[in-house]
Design brief:
heterodimer; A: 14 residues; mainly beta; 2 strands; 0% helix; B: 257 residues; 9-stranded antiparallel beta sheet; 5-stranded antiparallel beta sheet; 4 helices; 46% strand
Chain lengths: 14, 257
């Protein structure tokens, strides 16, 4: 099973 | 006031086509540097970032930094009213409620003026760190579009594997498996039509084809696309647009449970 991750988890919120 | 006149107006039409299916609404940030936009898609899986540098416009005037909150579908509809050879001017006041798009035919016999209401958009701005990528793959944009289209017939995801032999795109589905391998061209001078790979470390990552296919809507903007991949990080898909800027998309990889 593949899990799609959110982009926000990689890039910090400014 | 803000005023930006783009002689090659078709570029603005193409930028719109490249984002409108991915992003519903976004702020176009206008500063002395140019016009930029950063937005996540509605499911927050991917990010689009674009820059139109001020020197790509003639003239470009921005007295005060402003954000134009725009509904993409509405703007796309208006951009469709511009002819490919029109000159497009974007204009607004310093504290704008509206933005005006002016389309001039090349002989200036026809001038169209569209005013659009702006929205208040509270968008989250993400910081994208400088990353050392494991592999940077440059290839013809049309080739990447073709690969995404072909493998979408096989499965939902594409596994991108890059090693010293080249790059392989593979998809798997109920009907079977599809694999497309590209070798690096012998002449490495990044000319159009070339596949070139800068490899630091062999890498293999899986991405949703649905989103990569959205990204390939930018194909008319550039002859070459660059895929920057790094283990466990989002892929950066970049289309550099001659003389004006770029559009970059970031997509988080799928992780095996």
């Amino acid at each position: 099973c593949e899990l799609q991750t959110l982009i926000r988890e990689y890039f910090k919120s400014q | 006031m803000f005023e930006a006149r783009l002689v090659q107006g078709s570029l603005m039409k193409k930028f719109m086509e490249a984002i409108k299916d991915l992003v519903k609404e976004a702020n176009w940030d206008c500063t002395g540097t140019g016009i930029s936009l950063q937005a996540m898609d509605t499911s927050h899986v991917s990010l689009v970032s674009l820059l139109l540098r001020s020197d790509g416009f003639d003239p470009y005037r921005c007295d005060r930094n402003i954000s134009l909150g725009i509904n993409m579908e509405s703007m796309a509809k208006i951009m469709k009213c511009a002819s490919n050879d029109d000159v497009i001017t974007i204009r607004s006041e310093d504290h704008p409620d509206n933005v005006t798009f002016v389309f001039e035919s090349p002989n200036q016999e026809k001038v169209c003026d569209y005013e659009m209401k702006l929205m208040d958009i509270d968008s989250e701005h993400l910081g994208i760190p400088d990353t050392e990528y494991d592999a940077i793959i440059s290839m013809p944009a049309s080739e990447f579009q073709r690969i995404c289209r072909d493998l979408s017939n096989i499965g939902d995801s594409v596994k991108i594997t890059c090693n010293k032999d080249g790059v392989q795109f593979s998809a798997q589905g109920d009907t079977g498996i599809g694999k497309i391998a590209l070798k690096q061209n012998a002449v490495i001078d990044k000319e159009d039509g070339q596949v070139s790979i800068e490899l630091n470390d062999p890498v293999s990552l899986t991405f949703a084809l649905r989103y990569l296919t959205f990204f390939t809507k930018a194909t008319p903007l550039a002859s070459t696309v660059t895929l920057s991949v790094s283990a466990k990080n989002p892929v950066a898909v970049e289309y550099r647009v001659d003389d004006i800027g770029y559009i970059r998309y970031y997509l988080a990889p799928k992780i095996e449970e």
